[in-house]
Amino acid sequence: MGRQNHPLTKADQAHGATGKCFCCQGRSDAFWFGELYVEICRVCATEVLPALIADAILPEGSLDTLIAERELPKIEKTFWKAVASGVAHNARTEQNRLLPANDDENALRG
Ligand SMILES: [Zn+2]
After folding, report:
1. 82: CA distance to ligand 1 center in Å?
2. How many CA atoms lie within 13 A of 75 on its CB side?
3. Residue 44 Cα to ligand 1 middle (Å)
4. Which of 8, 57, 85, 109 has the smallest count of CB within 10 Å of its CB?
């Protein structure tokens, strides 16, 4: 399983990624892949995905909101780990963008 922001690679597309949000069919902003690709846009990530998580956590027919309350710290921990991972990825990408790509050019500069 992995996660990625855009852009999709040709390999992603060859494995079924479409670039469309699974929920609204708009342009996806991120995707996860396991057996299948799950792609989502920023709006659905904030307005729809939390409801899906709640449905998955609360057993059918349960009136016990404490079940969801007990799971919330785990959700928040995973969320913040993913935010940190995403920021680290973006920082590496930005650093690579700023570094000169041509080593021969660097050698000439001494
Ligand atoms: Zn969407």
Report:
1. 19
2. 14
3. 4
4. 109
